[in-house]
Amino acid sequence: MYNIDLGKSGLKVPTIGVGCMRIANMSESEISAFVDTALQMGANFFDHADIYGGGKSEEVFGKAITPSMREKVIIQTKCGIRKGQYDFSYEHIVNSVDGSLKRLGTDYIDVLLLHRPDALMEPDEVARAFSYLKETGKVRNFGVSNHNPYQIQLLQNALDMPLCANQLQLSIMHTPMIDAGINVNMYNNSATVRDGGVLDFCRLNNITIQPWSPMQYGFFEGCFVDSNKFPELNEVLKRIGDKYSVSKTTIAIAWILRHPAKMQPITGTTNLNRLADSLKAADIKLTREEWYEIYRTAGNKLP
Ligand SMILES: NC(=O)c1ccc[n+]([C@@H]2O[C@H](COP(=O)([O-])OP(=O)(O)OC[C@H]3O[C@@H](n4cnc5c(N)ncnc54)[C@H](OP(=O)(O)O)[C@@H]3O)[C@@H](O)[C@H]2O)c1
């Protein structure tokens, strides 16, 4: 595993983060094994949200992290989604963080992300909440998720700390942010800019993109690896995996890491073998030809 800078935060983080959205129903011993597997492979960055498992994911994770382990792990969580609405109000942000701290059994969160844009966001109000959280030591660094460039800039203008990360959906089978950049000014569907040019914006402003659902197609429709919906893609992943003596899962994560934006994909598996396979991707650097072959086989048109 190698480390990257998390935007301008000054925080060094492993280039692959471990997602905890699906851990709520794991037993205590399963969570301990999950955390141990990650730590043994140098992956000490764990991604949470107040809503994962209705709070249960943070709770079970908090129980697995003993006080002596706390300084060795980097905990990121999110807030801003409530049933039936988004909420970036001062009260919601601060209360959500207090809830996360309690469930995680810690007195600080390393990184807090705003989960999805709130149409009613008041940048000054968010700034007040962030300043309070920073001054009280409850949160050390801040970022966003699923935000476009103008939303980021609007918020950033009100803040006196840098937004260090933007978590966005990206996988071999979900590439709108890449497609638009290589189909500039064309009439085809891939040319549609769905995110305001967020990939280049984040690179220009040193904001780390954290790809979520790195193995899914559609919106949580399923994992493309081993899916009979994508036979050709699986064949290519297998062939390239065989060349490096790794699995298709490893190649799928390595494909994201090969992009020069220095992204930090967030894994989602709860299976220890697949977690280890995902983390091995940090050791693989695909060739330019392999990267484009995978992209083409995913159904994208190239000359
Ligand atoms: N910011 C946001 O809006 C947002 C949205 C969604 C997720 N996230 C974050 O991103 C993380 C990852 O999302 P995700 O869970 O959807 O990720 P994912 O890695 O794309 O999907 C994981 C799911 O695919 C399954 N899977 C089947 N075969 C697999 C294989 N060969 N390799 C890996 N997984 C396989 C896993 O099952 P097994 O567990 O049985 O392996 C698991 O159910 C989450 O934990 C969360 O932290 C953020």
Query: Which small-molecule species are bound to the chains here?
Result: NADP nicotinamide-adenine-dinucleotide phosphate
Number of strands: 14
Widest beta sheet: strand line-up = 11-10-9-8-5-4-3-14
| Secondary-structure content class | alpha/beta
Strand coverage percent: 15-25%
Describe this structure in words.
Helix 9 (231-244) crosses helix 10. The protein has 303 residues and is an alpha/beta fold. 38% of the residues lie in helices and 17% in strands. The mean pLDDT is 97. The structure holds NADP nicotinamide-adenine-dinucleotide phosphate. Residues 19-22, 47, 115, 145-146, 167, 212-216, 223, 225, 249, 266-271, 274 line the site of NADP nicotinamide-adenine-dinucleotide phosphate (NAP). NADP nicotinamide-adenine-dinucleotide phosphate binds at residues 19-22, 47, 115, 145-146, 167, 212-216, 223, 225, 249, 266-271, 274.
